[in-house]
Write a structure and sequence with these properties.
By secondary structure, the chain is mainly alpha-helical. It is built from eight helices and two strands. It has a domain at 26-159.
Amino acid sequence: MASVGELLGRLLGRRDDDSDRLVLPPVPTAAELVAELDRVEEMAADAAVPSPVESRVRRVTAVVRDAIARLDRMGSGSEHAYLVMATATDYLPDAVGAYLRLPRDWANSRPVDGGRTSLMVLVDQLDLLARTMGGVLDAVNRRDAAALVAHGRFLAERFGTAGGRLSLDAVAPGAGPAPGAGPVAPAALGAPGATAGPDVTAPGGPAPAPGADPAGSPAPAAEPDQRLQPPEPV
């Protein structure tokens, strides 16, 4: 059964071929969007627009440039991405171009909308574009920040402690004595067959400990190897 469109095409004498199909323009690239912003800035500078207009144009283009750099985080088919591309290619150039087509004195002095001159209308439009683009950029940044917070909570649950710091003990529990601790005697560990050795003493008193000064003063304690110390908490 033919569709309504096909029936209308037959009645109007249209042929069902590729020439009647709607061809959408390609999505502009980031470089093309930046080139559009440059063109608007040059257009405003060449026309020597009033300073309130020029400052607002540069404010909008600065925010849109930041948003273009984050287009990959928005998704090509999202509403935010569409607003960024439409602002760079249509909304901003159309607003500035409409003002520039008017005689300057007339545009700056003749009320046209509720007591507002064309200059005031343009300023309000530029402020609206700046707020909208700022909201788009803030939404993207907040989404990335939320992902960072969620990842930090995952790491805290997986490896962390109550204080929120990473702990190597959670990765390798029971790894042994703390770094820098001295050797543990077999008898203290209760190893099978471990017995205390005979008390061998030289005449006149016990033999000095290994490494001790024969005169009787103990040798200085060895510094622990810094490579074996736990890392400082970040």
